[in-house]
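Hi everyone, sorry if this is the wrong subforum. Our group has a chain we'd like a structural model of before ordering constructs, and none of us has done structure prediction before. Sequence below.
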Amino acid sequence: MKFTLAAAVASALAIAATTTSAGVVISQTAVATSPTSVRTTPQTVMIEGRKQKIADAHRETITDLDAGVMYTLNPAMKNFVKTTIPPKGMMAAAMEHEGMGVGYQKAAATDKAAGYACQDYTGTAMTMNTRLEVTQCAASEAPGAREYVDFHKALADKLKGSPLEPKGEVPDGIPVKSKIAFIQVPLPLPRQFDPKVAAEYEANIAAANRNPPTTVTTVTKIEVKNLPADTFTVPKEYKEQQLQPAMRTIPGLPRPVMPPRAPSKAAPASGAPAPM
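Answer:
Right subforum, don't worry. Here is the predicted structure as tokens:
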């Protein structure tokens, strides 16, 4: 009897140790909708300790908090871009567009998605002239939720003091359902603009925001399991690329409604002296 009890205790401890060290794998689908298109993208999020990997058919992103780096991989071209944490410049703008730096607040509503009860959180962030309005429904009882939350709290600590620092709280759980709406914000116009032109510009912004681009992400499966040792490493055959110094647009960012051109001074009549 004593042997059986001891064996049972040892087995339970072994299982607990395995579960603690295991990673969490989240399968989800992101649906990006704009007035002219709908794009569906299956994604996988893998977290173990202080490392994360997000992968879809076209791109993989590895985040290593202990090393203080992020790798953006292009599997088709077998190359990658390395950036420090917190990211800067164009990489920071791209991360802002994807929701990094959003400060969340717990909302009143609760819901259920992927078979898990979840708590709503809302947040906003600015990227260029676009405001992100984000809702997440976080499941605190989902398997791997502690691993997921601990990683994102550690990431928030790494972002402190940078423009990407979250100004709210980290949602308590895995976001089993989330939505990002991209709301355009009109740029300020100089005083010399014709009021009718300025009003038309603001009306165009308002029209675009009546049906703004959105991305809805829904979890389909959550697993807790041991991950291969090379999950969070860049394959040896990949070549490092330097980020281009100029990038006019960020892929996926909605095309902004451009402000009208500033009125130009009339050219002098033929033969008339140019103004001094």
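For your construct planning: Residues 105 and 121 are 5 Å apart (CA to CA). The longest strand covers residues 116-127.
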